[in-house]
Write a sequence for this structure.
């Protein structure tokens, strides 16, 4: 004989892990080749000059330089480029 009434089940109690998306390096910041600039779902930002796009649409620097955000193209998209700095 049970001394406590059986508790009902619940359909709550779980949550997905955070994905840590967003801009990681802002305009004017100096980056090295391979640095992640933006983590995103889809292409909110598009790869510009000296920027590569990964399989999950992560944008990364392909050369050392300074990050620059700008808009352009026929659809006025947001681009991220790297302005290479000359070695002194």
């Amino acid at each position: 004989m049970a001394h406590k009434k059986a508790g009902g089940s619940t359909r709550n109690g779980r949550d997905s892990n955070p994905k840590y998306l967003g801009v990681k390096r802002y305009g004017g910041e100096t980056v090295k080749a391979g640095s992640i600039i933006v983590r995103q779902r889809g292409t909110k930002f598009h790869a510009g000059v000296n920027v590569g796009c990964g399989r999950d649409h992560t944008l990364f620097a392909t050369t050392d330089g300074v990050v620059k955000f700008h808009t352009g193209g026929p659809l006025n998209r947001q681009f991220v480029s790297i302005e290479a700095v000359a070695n002194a």
